[in-house]
Write a structure and sequence with these properties.
Strand content: 5-15%
Largest sheet: 3 strands, antiparallel
Oligomer: single chain
Distance between the termini: 62 Å
Strand order of the largest sheet: 1-2-3
Helix content: over 70%
Number of strands: 3
Structural class: mainly alpha
Radius of gyration: 37 Å
Number of helices: 6
Order of helices and strands: EHHHHEEHH
């Protein structure tokens, strides 16, 4: 029975353990980065589906308004206060509204299927969405410096690249340590003889203790070349970290700009809806009094339908841009 125990190896085992721990940290951070990308894709699909549903609802309201206008025009024609061309134009407007509503229904079904697929559900699985997107009371976008600091401190992609760089640096230390001396303790027990001799007839037992110091003297420069190779990998890991930091920073800058633009559009869309509603009310009263034609009324109704659609898109763009900014900073799911 032989027992050998390495007492000291001048840091080789500790360095290899450090490499393994840093690679594990890099793998965990890479998993987190993958989850961030998946959640960001779900966010995009979710707001696409909500927008498509709201657009379909707005187009259905436009159909209702166009049908009411047609009925009013037909009554006016019966009373002799409207021309036949007004009825034809109202019917054409209703047909256009119905066509737009059908297209919106198709987009709604497609976006719901995409959302279910991104979430890992069957494409035919029902997805329940909110009826309307809530407008924020006092929306703000924090400054860019804050988000860049968050990204550099917490983005899983950056943390993964940092762990990979540290693992590469630890690998250099481990490779050098493999060529350093080792000190080992050994114990050997022999029963009925000793190694190299025939077995004895009488029972005997020999126990041997020893210390062995191994000092590598020359390996034909193999160790030098191996260390140079892992040093090059460490430099490549450092360069990769810089690239990841630059890419993440660029994504944050773009997402921040999109969020600021979406906030401006959100405020402008509210003004647009108010103005369009006032225009429809004025055109309706003018048409009822006979001081304007059907074209003015239909034009303002189309403008109102477009304004509602823009409002819906701006709301969805704001919510999506806000979450995309959080995702770009790498903190999606970790902040309130």
């Amino acid at each position: 029975v032989n027992l050998t125990w390495r007492l000291y190896d001048f840091g080789a085992r500790e360095a290899n353990l450090g490499v393994a721990n840093r690679l594990l940290a890099a793998a965990i951070a890479s998993r987190d980065a993958t989850l961030q990308k998946l959640m960001s894709a779900v966010v995009d699909s979710y707001f696409d589906a909500v927008t498509a549903q709201a657009v379909h609802r707005a187009r259905a309201e436009a159909v209702r308004m166009a049908r009411a206008t047609l009925e009013a025009t037909e009554r006016r024609e019966t009373l002799g206060v409207a021309a036949g061309i007004d009825v034809l134009q109202a019917r054409a407007a209703l047909a256009r509204a119905q066509l737009a509503a059908q297209r919106a229904r198709g987009e709604q079904a497609k976006s719901a299927s995409v959302l279910a697929f991104v979430m890992g559900l069957p494409g035919t699985a029902p997805v329940q969405l909110p009826d309307d997107l809530e407008a924020p009371d006092a929306p703000v976008v924090q400054d860019l410096v804050h988000w860049l600091a968050e990204a550099r401190a917490r983005h899983p992609g950056i943390r993964a690249a940092q762990a990979q760089r540290e693992a590469a640096q630890a690998k250099v230390t481990a490779t050098r340590a493999e060529g350093w001396p080792t000190l080992e303790f050994s114990r050997s027990d022999q029963v009925y003889g000793v190694p190299g001799q025939g077995p004895g007839s009488a029972r005997s037992r020999v126990t041997t203790y020893g210390l062995a110091l191994s000092i590598p003297l020359f390996e034909g420069f193999a160790r030098v070349y191996k260390v140079s190779g892992v040093q090059a990998q460490a430099e490549q890991s450092a360069a990769n970290l810089q690239n990841v930091v630059l890419q993440v920073s660029m994504d944050v800058v773009k997402a921040h700009a999109d969020a600021a633009s979406a906030l401006d559009n959100l405020q402008a869309s509210a003004t647009l809806v108010d103005a369009a509603q006032a225009a429809v009310g004025s055109a309706t009263r003018r048409y009822d009094k006979g001081v304007s034609d059907i074209l003015e009324l239909l034009s303002t109704q189309n403008t109102l339908a477009d304004a509602h659609q823009e409002r819906i898109r701006c709301l969805a763009d704001w919510h999506a841009a806000r979450l995309k900014l959080v995702a770009a900073a790498g903190v999606l799911g970790t902040l309130d």
